[in-house]
């Protein structure tokens, strides 16, 4: 049923129900490095002000230097964030979508106490033209709050495949509210087809040679559909797996790389032993899909299987954030011992 299989021990006995800060500090350090690795393009305060005003910018592609250039000129009539002081401190931020993590964000300087900021700055991306043409440019304006959350002032999204590249002139564009897809959390990154199974300790009977002395969680990663296409040839993808809160090498497993395919078939099984039934309430299986390149791997999407309580062994953690679908999938596995539970779960930003 699978072309590769991994079996590793996962020792939960080092975690206590009410661990001290000292005994858990090394785990929490590694947890924070994982949970903070992927940032959302939409991070900040969207409810404080209504989007208004316009932004003037121009786009160009420098063929010689293979560089995409966003010339941000100015904004007019932006919303006022601090009504008591009648001020906004705006800046402009850009991303290339759909994979905002791949190319990263660019942003202008902050202009203080103005709703009509003048920037005259160029934001640059080193990127091949063929790759650029399958991207969208997200340009948004924000109020900078050094003591709190930045406030969203409006955005515009440009489909670069249909952009008129002969137009290098500065033009005005109306700033729009946060897009409906972002409000609804729609961020389609593909769908993972997988099965999971929990084998409780001693549940297979004394006569069974494979009867585990401690419980096991089996994860069968079958395939992924509709991955983000980061370049014309497709993606070279693989799947990483951790059982959080353990982010050590012992917990880490990965599949082989499937090249040039946005619908990769992995057929990879992983077995974690050392699971006691009560651990299922506090652990979380994190599966992430990555595009492989020589210098660095790029995050494509992931899922987290757990109860989504926000707590792990009594400690508040941000990775216990499973969606309703992911929680239901995990709960079905917990209630049906020794049975494969099959699911089709959407990948998301983590």
Oligomer: single chain
Distance between the termini: 30 Å
Q: Which structural category fits the helices and strands?
A: mainly beta
Radius of gyration: 24 Å
Mean pLDDT: 80
Helix-strand string? EHEEEHEEHEEEHEEEEEEEEEHE
The number of distinct β-strands equals 19
Task: Categorize the overall geometry.
Answer: elongated
Question: What is the count of DSSP helices, taking H or I runs of 4+ residues?
Answer: 5
Uncertain regions spanning at least 5 consecutive residues: 1-6, 13-43, 180-186
Beta content: 35-45%
Estimate percent helicity: 10-25%
The biggest sheet, with number of strands, parallel, antiparallel or mixed sense and barrel status, is: 5 strands, mixed
Describe the strand arrangement of the main beta sheet, using strand numbers: 1-14-11-10-19
How does this structure look, described?
With 350 residues, the chain is mainly beta. Helix content is 11%, strand content 38%. It has helices at 21-35, 100-103, 129-132, 180-183, 324-335; strands spanning 4-9, 54-62, 67-76, 90-97, 106-107, 118-126, 136-143, 151-159, 171-174, 191-199, 215-225, 237-244, 253-254, 265-275, 284-291, 298-305, 311-312, 315-316, 341-346. It has a 5-stranded mixed beta sheet, covered by helices on one side. The chain has a 4-stranded antiparallel beta sheet with strand order 6-3-2-9, with no helix packed on it. It is elongated, with a radius of gyration of 24 Å. Residues 51-173, 188-320 form the C2 domain. One of its GO terms (cellular component) is exocytic vesicle. This is Synaptotagmin-like protein 2. Its main location: membrane.
């Amino acid at each position: 049923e699978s072309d590769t299989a991994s079996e590793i021990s996962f020792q939960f006995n080092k975690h206590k129900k009410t661990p001290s800060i000292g005994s858990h500090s090394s785990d929490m350090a590694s947890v924070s490095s994982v949970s903070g690795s992927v940032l959302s393009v939409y991070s900040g305060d969207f409810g404080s002000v209504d989007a208004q005003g316009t932004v003037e910018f121009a786009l160009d592609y420098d063929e010689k230097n293979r560089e995409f250039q966003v010339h941000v000129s100015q904004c007019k009539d932006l919303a006022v964030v601090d009504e008591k002081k009648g001020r906004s401190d705006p800046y402009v931020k850009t991303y290339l979508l759909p994979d905002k993590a791949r190319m990263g964000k660019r942003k202008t300087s902050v202009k203080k106490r103005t709703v009509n900021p003048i920037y005259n700055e160029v934001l640059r991306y080193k990127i091949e033209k063929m790759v650029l043409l399958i991207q969208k440019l997200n340009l948004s304006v924000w109020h900078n709050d050094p003591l709190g959350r930045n406030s969203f002032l409006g955005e515009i999204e440009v489909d670069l495949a249909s952009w008129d590249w002969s137009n290098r002139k500065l033009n005005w564009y109306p700033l729009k509210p946060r897009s409906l897809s972002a409000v609804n959390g729609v961020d389609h990154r593909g769908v993972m087809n997988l099965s999971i199974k929990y084998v409780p300790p001693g549940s297979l009977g004394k006569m069974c040679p494979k009867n585990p002395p401690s419980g096991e969680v089996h994860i069968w990663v079958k395939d992924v559909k509709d991955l983000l296409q980061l370049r014309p040839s497709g993606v070279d993808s693989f799947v990483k797996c951790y059982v959080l809160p353990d982010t050590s090498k012992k917990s880490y497993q990965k599949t082989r790389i499937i090249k040039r395919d946005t619908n990769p078939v992995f057929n990879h099984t992983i077995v974690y032993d050392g699971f006691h039934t009560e651990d299922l309430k506090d652990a979380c299986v994190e599966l992430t899909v990555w595009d492989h390149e020589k210098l660095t791997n790029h995050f494509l999407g992931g899922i987290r299987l757990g109860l989504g309580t926000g707590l792990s062994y009594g400690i508040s953690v941000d990775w216990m954030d499973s969606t309703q679908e992911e929680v239901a999938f995990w709960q079905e596995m917990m209630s049906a011992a020794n049975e494969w539970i099959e699911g089709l779960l959407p990948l998301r930003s983590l």
